[in-house]
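ok so i was messing around last nite and threw this chain in just to see what happens. nothing serious, just curious
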Amino acid sequence: MSERDTFGPRLRRERERRGISLEMLATRTNVSIELWIGLESNDFSKWPGGLFARAFVRDYAKVVGLDADELVDDFCRLFPVGDRRALPKLRAQAELIGHELHAGDESKLIPGGVDRRASAQGAAADAAAPAERPAAKRWWWPKKASVP
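result:
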């Protein structure tokens, strides 16, 4: 069996070994038992995607007593429903077909309009040469001048 096939059953075994019932898990996380059964059987047909899926896995890990960061990383690596690397994949696919991709985070959707994430995404955007970007599009908005 592959690592992907054993992901959910491993979680179930660990939860049962620690004596935590699905009812207790659902009560502590406010997530339905059906979704936890889906996680433990690798059935994500009813699961939300992206941020919510990762948050659910993080909550599961905290209640069961597992390393939350490690579990979320494994989940994102093994299942596309939790993948947080969509933009790099889109860029790679666009490059492959010769499409010019203009994607980025909308500043109006970021609280306060300031992107405070310390991630590889920010480093990659900073490393890109300005000539590679269209002049009309800005990836990082200018800082407002401070008033003395």
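not much to say yet. The helical segments are 3-17, 22-29, 33-40, 50-64, 68-78, 86-97, 120-127.
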